[in-house]
């Protein structure tokens, strides 16, 4: 009888899916005191987590744990080597949030290009001003550079193409002919692609090889007046370097769904800039996205304990 601990609030249909499974004991998320959480961890064989860190301290309290499912696709809140040492399987919910995040990236591109936030604030203040010199621009005809051509990046490519944009793709792990076969331009030389793109959008994971990759050098190589969009992970970006590039006028704006330290408990310097739009890591959290992720996390859990987990969902098995 699998004992499943759901650490954070998920769509109720995901809980219902687990509870409908014969023999399942499901502990629903409540504000756990450390003592109550500890008692649940002692029993848990499976865990579903959204934001809670799965680290050595938590694992020490969970001697029976065999399976962890991350509700989402990024698993930088999970200590994978610690799971590996214990032989615990880690799964994610691939595809469940890809459409939601891809749309959010497009939304940030549009919001920055059309200065939506500023115009909306002007009108609310009573300033109905149509500037003589336009400071907005079309997406059509712009070049966008996508860093990462996985589930989300490849969808963003299709959406950008639909807007009439030139789409360049930099992904060291995807063959150039895969990118060109889908009608996009492979950009193996990152530095020269950065000099071409009007918009750079990040869609790669945050790991030891990518953390801090958007540093002063990366930003200096970007085309003057370009925009940066980040719906991937805040740790990819050196925020001080980004602030400097924006203040210097080298970049025209940044749209960030993710920041270095989340949750943001006090205002970061980037928030002082009108050219920056920040959303609180909600790209995946549409009604449909949350529903799909909860159902996928529940299904992965059921499939793991039935011995038929989809290999495509497994990070480590
Ligand atoms: N904001 C949100 O709510 C939200 C939701 C879901 C996913 N994400 C983030 O979006 C990112 C992409 O998710 P996905 O589902 O598309 O993942 P994915 O694994 O399908 O794709 C990631 C791609 O990045 C590529 N990549 C790795 N290193 C790279 C590098 N140095 N330069 C360029 N490309 C590189 C990989 O080859 C892969 O194709 C992840 O960081 C994930 O954490 C954010």
Automatic annotation (TrEMBL):
Protein origin, superkingdom: Bacteria
SUPFAM superfamilies: Formate/glycerate dehydrogenase catalytic domain-like, NAD(P)-binding Rossmann-fold domains
Origin species: Plastoroseomonas hellenica
Every D-isomer specific 2-hydroxyacid dehydrogenase catalytic domain range: 4-313
InterPro entries (alphabetical): D-iso_2-hydroxyacid_DH_PdxB, D-isomer_2_OHA_DH_cat_dom, D-isomer_DH_CS, D-isomer_DH_NAD-bd, NAD(P)-bd_dom_sf
One Pfam family here: 2-Hacid_dh
UniProt record similarity statement: Belongs to the D-isomer specific 2-hydroxyacid dehydrogenase family.
UniProtKB keywords: NAD, Oxidoreductase
Protein's UniProt name: Hydroxyacid dehydrogenase
CDD domains linked to this entry: PGDH_4
Residue stretches making up the D-isomer specific 2-hydroxyacid dehydrogenase NAD-binding domain: 106-283
